[in-house]
Design brief:
It contains 15 helices and three strands. By secondary structure, the protein is mostly helical. It has two domains: 222 residues, Rossmann fold, CATH 3.40.50; 79 residues, Tyrosyl-Transfer RNA Synthetase (Orthogonal Bundle), CATH 1.10.240.10. A three-stranded parallel sheet has the order 1-2-3. α1 links the parallel β1 and β2. α4 crosses α8. The longest helix has 29 residues. The protein binds tryptophanyl-5'AMP. Tryptophanyl-5'AMP binds next to β1, α1 and α8.
């Protein structure tokens, strides 16, 4: 019997942040390492999603390989046959299923997606593409083609998982058991434990998510920052006037964010870290501890990234794409048959 699946995607970008790293990359890689006895793990690079907003098209290809190398540097083993690493656009069933799902998706349903609202607000009107509007449907295809039970993502993607469940269930109701539906976001959080639903905040404005698309980059720690520059960003993080370290996201979002980041960097529980620092009145001393951990983390990560074998990464991509094309095409054909585009059923 085939194993249940855990699946997630991470867009190719030169500017991956520690939010991407701790929110998505590390949890899935930990999961891949610890659960591949019991699960098949699909990690993919959603390159079609990358072009939903204007990007540097000449750089995309390089970024895709670089992103795959990031996964390996973060600990993804390449020699495990139950772990698959692939590029979305290399498996054409993703695009084809998206179109079919599009035709079963309400305009109003998409219009309610908060990510679209957020992202389109950041763009000039003429640059807001139909592709961006359609983004969650492509995501639904990414999942439904393989039928994962679990999809580790950051908080911002929860609504898209709910949509995937909705459209999958709707089509199953109409056409019989076409798709395996991912578990509810709540069940996913329970399965993944503390790292799920994580939201690392911007260092300069700790009320908003740390985002790779942030323009100034001052509040964002990029994996490609020099360790020294990243440490400086921590030292100049916005905090508050309370002068008392405590975890209180609402009233002390800056300090709380730094506590969270420190816990992640030290692989300790938040509780433990809070206990250690609670009550400190000199924010500078506390920040220096976080800054040093960030510096150490980036130095180590960048060394690992430098050592990744690109030939082995490319070979893994090609091997996984071959295998996943077979699975994806089987789901696509079932769907095409159900909606009358192919004979059978
Ligand atoms: P992307 O590349 O924008 O984000 C990749 C993952 O990083 C998480 N993330 C964060 N988590 C915590 N704190 C932050 N500050 C932070 N910033 C980003 C995101 O939630 C995401 O999990 N659309 C997806 C990619 C995708 C996908 C899929 C995922 C495409 N198809 C199918 C799962 C299943 C995305 O936003 O990627």
């Amino acid at each position: 019997m085939s194993k249940p699946i855990i699946l997630t995607g991470l867009r190719a970008n030169n500017n991956l942040t520690i939010g991407n790293y701790f929110g998505a990359m590390l949890p899935i890689i930990d999961m891949a390492r610890t659960r591949s006895n019991d699960y098949q793990v699909n990690m993919f690079i959603p390159d079609l999603h990358s072009i939903t907003t204007p990007v540097d098209y000449s750089a995309i290809n390089k970024q895709i390989i670089l992103t795959a190398k990031h996964f390996v540097a973060a600990g993804l083993p390449l020699d495990n046959p139950d772990i698959h690493l692939y590029r979305q656009s290399y498996i054409s069933a993703h695009s084809e299923l998206t179109w079919i799902l599009d035709c079963f998706t309400g305009f109003g349903e998409m219009n309610r997606m908060t990510q679209f609202k957020d992202k389109s607000n950041d763009l000039a009107a003429e640059r807001v593409s139909v592709g961006l509007f359609n983004y969650p449907v492509l995501m639904a295809a990414d999942m439904l083609l393989y039928g994962p039970e679990y999809v580790p993502v950051g908080d911002d993607q929860s609504q898209h998982i709910e949509f995937t469940r909705d459209i999958g269930e709707r089509m199953n109701k109409q056409f019989g058991e076409l798709f395996t539906i991912p578990k509810t976001v709540k069940e996913q959080h329970a399965f993944f434990g503390k790292d799920q639903g994580l939201r690392i905040m911007d260092l300069q404005d700790p009320t908003k998510k740390m985002s790779k698309s942030d323009e100034s980059g001052k509040g964002v720690i990029f994996l490609a920052d020099t360790p020294e520059a990243a440490a400086r960003k921590v030292m100049s993080a916005v905090t508050d006037e309370v002068a008392y370290v405590r975890f209180d996201r609402k009233n002390q979002p800056g300090i709380s964010n730094l506590l969270e980041i420190l816990a992640l960097l030290q692989s300790r529980s938040l509780d433990e870290v809070v206990k250690e620092f609670e009550g400190q009145t000199l924010y500078g001393d506390f920040k220096a501890v976080v800054a040093e951990e960030v510096r150490r983390f980036l130095t180590d990560f960048q060394r690992k990234l430098h050592d990744v074998d690109e030939v082995a990464v490319t070979a893994k991509l090609e091997q996984s794409e071959k295998a996943m094309t077979i699975t994806a095409n089987a789901t696509l054909l079932r769907t095409q048959q159900a909606v009358g585009l192919r004979p059978g059923n």
